[in-house]
Write a structure and sequence with these properties.
Elements: H1 8-20, H2 24-37, H3 43-54, H4 58-64, H5 70-83, H6 87-96, H7 98-103, H8 118-132, H9 136-144, H10 147-157, H11 161-175, H12 181-186, H13 191-194
Length: 198
């Protein structure tokens, strides 16, 4: 039955594909499979999230955030969001993926180096939100990767209501950590940057 999908061998197979394939469609499909297997709060998803970590799959996914393919970046971002529902994964993803996630966000001057589609930008923003939820350390990592500038730019000037909303949720989460406010204010940010009217 479907339990066969949740064996360590299946995780190893997908990670092997993600490591060795150069085909964007194949990479998107393998990341999408891990994304689906790690979604939700049931026993098998929890098992898959831990197995991906134990099989050293997180660095493989983080590296794929550098892909030139919009769809690969999107699938990998959503997979990382699902995987970060595991606390240990969340800590690792926050430490090692935050810089790559922020690099995929558009800046004031341009959409992003790769000109990612709206769905992909929203996926990256939602992943960042999941990673910083209940983690001051990951929120601090976001600040250190210069993510606030990009988030404020998206929330103020994006033409996409979905991007604006997703960026605003991340900003509100950051401001909710009172212990980070002094550092933010030293960098020139104030409450108005984080409380966005939608």
């Amino acid at each position: 039955g479907f339990e066969l999908l949740y064996q360590p061998d299946v995780v190893r197979l997908y990670l092997s594909i993600l490591t060795e394939s150069q085909n964007f469609n194949t990479l998107e499909a393998a990341a999408g499979a891990l994304q689906n297997l790690s979604a939700g709060n049931w026993m098998w998803s929890t098992y898959i999230r831990a197995t991906v970590r134990k099989e050293r799959g997180l660095p493989v996914l983080v590296e794929l955030l550098q892909s030139d393919s919009d769809k690969v970046v999107r699938a990998v971002s959503i997979a990382l969001r699902n995987l970060s529902m595991d606390r240990r994964n969340k800590d690792l993803i926050g430490s090692y993926a935050m810089g790559e996630l922020v690099r995929n966000l558009p800046s004031r001057q341009q959409r992003s180096a790769k000109n990612l589609e709206e769905d992909t930008v929203v996926a990256v923003l939602n992943t960042i939100h999941e990673i910083i939820t209940d983690s001051t350390e990951n929120a601090r990592s976001l600040i250190q990767t210069q993510g606030i500038q990009k988030l404020v730019a998206i929330s103020k000037s994006s033409q996409s209501p979905r991007e604006t909303k997703a960026a605003s949720h991340v900003l509100q989460m950051i401001w909710s950590y009172k212990e980070l406010r002094n550092a933010l204010q030293k960098d020139g940010w104030n409450k108005s940057h984080f409380q966005v009217n939608m």
